[in-house]
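Sharing a chain and its predicted structure for anyone who wants a worked example. Both blocks are below, sequence first, tokens second.
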Amino acid sequence: MPTVEFEGHTFNVDEDGFLDDFKNWNEAWVRYVKKLEGIEELTDEHWKVIKILQDYYKKNGVAPMVRILSKLTGFSLKKIYELFPSGPGKGACKMAGLPKPTGCV
């Protein structure tokens, strides 16, 4: 399994660069993905999406569909793409430490 080293942390990742286990998520991982995504500064809106994704995942074992994420955050899909340029699946879910979504996220 590939690994990523960042700020003194070692993360096991899958072939697409998602964390191998949600339990290994921490804020260093967020800073790593932020850098990959080209996001200059994380705002409260970024954190809102991250926390909602994590809470949903903890309760349901999967990432929410896009329309559910929009409803839970109160953000339009356009706004979510503004926050996470690579999208809710690749950018937001990866940053939140969730596994790579299998469906339409």
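Comments welcome. The first strand starts at residue 3 and ends at 6.
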